[in-house]
Design goal:
heterodimer; A: 237 residues; mainly alpha; two-stranded antiparallel sheet; two-stranded parallel sheet; 10 helices; B: 110 residues; Arc Repressor Mutant, subunit A; 4 helices
Chain lengths: 237, 110
């Protein structure tokens, strides 16, 4: 066996170990689902439902066995869940093109949020150069470009490596009570963007200090606007 | 009759059967699949989840998270007021339709 990938699935507190083929198959299925789902449905929510369902079925399939999930396991489960409308139509080349050129953050080799590793893979420029460029431009603009970094960190989805498909976001932005310091805003942002919560808190603190307290208004606004997550397990990442 | 002719009809009716099932009380996705499994309307999650999401988007139903003994919390669905209204409207329409079909049949064969 070449490699195993440890993943967590929406809603499940436990983690699953998949072999490489099983992981690829699941990732491809979810990607196809994202492409096929009609625009009038809440795509992220449906993907979350599907992910949770795969988890439910894996728990049943594995029972008490502690073993690696194989492609055969995944195949049986996906067959049970069934395909999507439009699956019979040829996908065309567009999907491949989009997948190659989509900008996303990359966890492998990340220093902060994986933005530079992502930009490096996207533009095919050495990551050291990208980081250096970021620092120079940040210094030249007296810190303004750091804001761009922060925005990208929150906006871009993250994947494990440059080649790994980007798993669609399965959760929505909401406040999270577990481990909260104030209103759970930083906690929620951290879970949503998969950035460490202390990094998010630092950003809020710095921004608040730099703006002489003005940025605290953003926090207050988010605290009022974001719903608090209903009692359910925080997906472990 | 050719089954292919009934396909689109079935597809259109599925949404109303789901309204009907959800109206019976709090159900989660597996309940809905189970109720339909032995019927002509057997369906799978790949079809059901997008449909439930669309219906929720249209305000026909909503859900609550509830803990389950086995595994992660589940979404329990219930009808909203517009959902109940749509179901009532559909039932009335369906009753009128079967009456019409019966009457037309009587004229021809009775």
């Amino acid at each position: 066996m070449d490699k195993t990938v440890t993943i967590s699935l929406n809603g499940h507190t436990g983690q699953f170990r998949l072999d490489g083929d099983a992981y690829d198959q699941l990732a491809q299925y979810l990607e196809r689902a994202a492409a096929r789902l009609p625009a009038d449905s809440d795509r992220a929510e449906v993907l979350g439902d599907l992910e949770r369902s795969v988890g439910d079925k894996l728990v049943v399939a594995l029972g008490a066995q502690d073993r690696v999930v194989t492609a055969a396991d995944i195949e049986a489960i996906l067959e049970e869940i069934g395909g999507f409308e439009g699956d019979d139509e040829p996908a065309g080349d567009l999907g491949v093109f989009r997948r190659l050129r989509r900008l996303h953050r990359i966890r492998a080799g990340q220093q902060l949020a994986g933005v530079c590793t992502g930009l490096s893979a996207y533009a095919d420029i050495d990551v050291g150069l990208v980081r250096f460029g970021f620092m120079v431009v940040t210094a030249l603009t007296l810190g303004l470009v750091a804001l761009l970094y922060i925005v990208l960190a929150f906006v871009l989805p993250i994947s494990a490596t440059a080649d790994a498909p980007v798993p669609p976001r399965s959760h929505r932005l909401e406040r999270i009570r577990e481990g909260q310091q104030l209103a759970g805003v930083c906690n929620g942002l951290a879970a949503y963007s998969e950035i460490k919560v202390n990094a998010v808190r630092s950003v809020f603190l710095f921004a608040t200090l730099l703006t002489a307290g003005g940025f605290a208004l953003v926090y207050a606004a988010l605290a009022f606007l974001l719903p608090i997550r209903a009692a359910r397990p925080v997906p472990a990442r | 009759m050719q089954d292919s002719k009934l396909g689109p009809l079935r597809k259109g009716l599925l949404e109303f059967l789901i309204l009907e099932i959800v109206s019976a009380g709090d159900v989660y996705a597996a309940d809905i699949l189970g109720r339909l499994a032995t019927t002509d309307f057997a369906t799978r999650e790949g079809t059901l989840y997008p449909l439930l999401s669309k219906m929720r988007g249209e305000g026909l139903l909503d859900y609550d998270w509830r803990e389950s003994a086995a595994g992660p919390p589940r979404k329990y669905y219930r009808l909203t007021d517009p959902g109940r209204a749509q179901l009532a409207h559909f039932r009335a329409y369906w009753a009128a339709l079967t009456t019409l079909i019966d009457e037309l049949g009587k004229v021809n064969h009775g």
